[in-house]
Design goal:
alpha/beta, Alpha-D-Glucose-1,6-Bisphosphate, Chain A, domain 3, 5-stranded mixed sheet, binds 1,6-di-O-phosphono-alpha-D-glucopyranose
Length: about 550
């Protein structure tokens, strides 16, 4: 531990914060000048090289969060997920495995920007008094990291912050983000009747694989021949996928893992990964020569920390015009919501299945889903979708970018186990629902678990790519990034569908959009990258580029 004065027990803190040790920590991990950090969509995210002070300070807050929750374990994940390799970040995970309680985010932002140790201590003291935190309560924090080169240096700062607060520390090492969320929930429920699973990486693989094998035991593969090609984004999803596959006999899942290089500098998310494929609506770079085209072959891409997944296939040889077909988060949501609703009906139980999307959801997907289940729209960010999904008995939530999962309420899970089936078909549906609730990582979107879910549904339906793709036709859509001087002047309302600032810009966007047939466009600041995102959707493919560029130009001009 780099901080010699780290205190060893919570009891030593009963009289107040260890101010002197915090002062040493602030010296050891000084805040870079002229940088303002924000705890945004998914924690703090920026260049990895400038993040040590952020890691040290958020670790202090995490220990306080654990104390506030009576000593339950909370989590910290060092990752920048879909961002380029030189970026890094820190996300805080609450005790049920969900994202940090929103009201604490403002304290995180204040703490990471405090310019002196005294200022930092006063932010922490405000947090302690507003939340009535008893400092003598023990704290427990588990942390993990992805494969980025800066992760090793950053977890040292995390560990130092936790040691400053005398927290009980578990270093989970290299993990996917959803594995860390799983560990937090599993640690806190261990030994209770709600035990989520064995709190180890191995326990995670065992839980997913045994649920999967129950669900596919008697079904032939829809994707096994040819194998499912998985682009691991050259990230932590690669070793995780290989470990998972050790638990699943090849006859039940055949995978060809691609982009699995976690060692060569610069390759993470570079020309590959879910964000590249979704944003560019094309195969990972180089696939044209790296894969031999087989009609009907399924492919999917994870992102850098394996919390997103998108599917795709080719309708003709690679490179042939319009042969690439994307099955993104919206298509996965539709597949899952449909299948689960049908099972609920077959089981003969009264449960509300609902779906949660964001403004990025393709208009066709929303129309399709609304004809089947209630649909809610929230701002971007898993934290918003997750809470909205909790309001349904079974809440399916997916962002178009492939980040999502399904939540089963406690009463729904009880109904699966306690309902007396009226027929063998109902009994089978209840067994399937029970196994699905085990298979799906209910803490957060999880590429591995979502991949198994898709596989289960495709086998049950005996669907090939066209059948799934045929559910609805996406409206032509485009996502652009615009670099601006200060993205924080862009403020939104109505689940990010309209801008309230800069003044007058929304009216100009409305005017432009009005010139196109059945078109839609919105602008919002990214919470993970230093840019403003422009989304455009039209009914006529030929008009798409012109609309997206026109709105992007309005954003650029407003910044002049
Ligand atoms: C994170 C969030 C997602 C969000 C994405 C992009 O994903 O967890 O909810 O959609 O960032 O956010 P923004 O448009 O604000 O930059 P990930 O996979 O990068 O952790």
């Amino acid at each position: 531990m780099s901080l010699p004065g780290a205190i060893s027990s919570a009891a030593a803190m009963a009289d107040g914060l260890p101010v002197q040790i915090i002062e040493e920590g602030v010296k050891e991990y000084p805040k870079p000048e002229n940088i303002t950090f924000t705890y945004g969509t998914a924690g703090v995210r920026t260049k990895g090289a400038v993040l040590e002070s952020v890691c040290y300070r958020i670790a202090l807050i995490s220990a306080l969060r654990s104390k506030r929750l009576g000593g339950k374990t909370v989590g910290l994940m060092v990752t920048a997920s879909h961002n380029p390799e030189e970026d890094n970040g820190l996300k805080a995970v609450d005790s049920r495995g969900e994202m940090l309680e929103a009201s604490w985010e403002a304290y995180c932002t204040q703490a990471v920007n405090a310019s002196t140790a005294q200022e930092l201590v006063s932010v922490l003291e405000n947090l302690i008094s507003a939340n009535k935190i008893n400092l003598s309560t023990p704290a427990s924090v588990v942390y993990a990291h992805d494969t980025r080169p800066t992760s090793t240096m950053l977890i040292k700062a995390v560990a130092a912050g936790l040691a400053t607060m005398g927290a009980h520390i578990t270093d989970a090492g290299l993990k996917t983000t959803p594995q860390l969320h799983y560990l937090v929930k599993a640690l806190n429920t261990q030994g209770t009747e709600d035990a989520y699973g064995e709190p180890t990486e191995e326990g995670y693989y065992k839980k997913l694989s045994s649920a999967y094998l129950k669900l596919v035991a008697d079904k032939t593969s829809a994707t096994a021949t040819p194998p499912l090609i998985v682009d691991c984004a050259n990230g932590v999803g690669a070793p995780a996928l290989l470990s998972l596959l050790k638990h699943i006999p090849e006859k039940h899942l055949t995978i060809k893992a691609m982009r699995t290089d976690t060692k060569t500098p610069g390759v993470l998310n570079n020309g590959c990964g879910a964000d590249y494929v979704k944003s560019n609506q094309r195969l990972p770079a180089g696939y044209e020569k790296d894969i031999s085209y087989v009609p009907g072959q399924w492919m999917c891409s994870f992102d850098g920390d394996a919390d997103r997944i998108v599917y795709y296939y080719l309708r003709g040889p690679p490179g042939q015009k319009d042969s690439f077909r994307l099955l993104d988060g919206d298509k996965i949501a539709s597949l899952a919501a449909d299948y689960i609703s049908e099972l609920v009906k077959k089981a003969g139980i009264e449960l509300q299945v609902g779906c949660v999307q964001t403004a990025y959801a393709n208009g066709s997907s929303t129309k399709y889903l609304k004809q089947r289940v209630p649909v809610t729209c929230t701002p971007t960010g898993v934290k918003y979708l997750h809470h909205a999904a909790e309001r349904y008995d079974i809440g399916v939530y997916f962002e178009a970018n492939g980040h999502g999962t399904v939540l089963f309420s406690t009463s729904a899970q009880r109904a699966f186990k306690e309902t007396s089936p009226a027929s063998p078909a109902a009994e089978d549906a209840l067994h399937q629902l029970t196994a699905l609730a085990e298979l799906i990582n209910q803490t957060v979107g999880d590429a591995l678990s979502d991949m198994l879910l898709v596989e289960v549904i495709l086998r049950a339906r005996q669907w090939g790519p066209e059948a799934w793709d045929g559910a609805y036709e996406d409206l032509p859509n485009k996502l652009l990034k615009v670099n601006v001087k200060d993205r924080f002047i862009f403020k939104t309302e109505d689940a990010e569908r309209r801008l309230v600032s800069p003044p007058g810009l929304q009216e100009k966007i409305d005017e432009v959009v009005g010139k196109y047939k059945d078109a839609r466009s919105f602008v919002r600041p990214s919470g993970t990258e230093d840019c403003v995102r422009v989304y455009a959707e039209t009914s006529l493919a030929g008009e798409l580029d012109s609309l997206a560029k026109a709105v992007a130009k309005l954003v650029q001009d407003s910044d002049a």
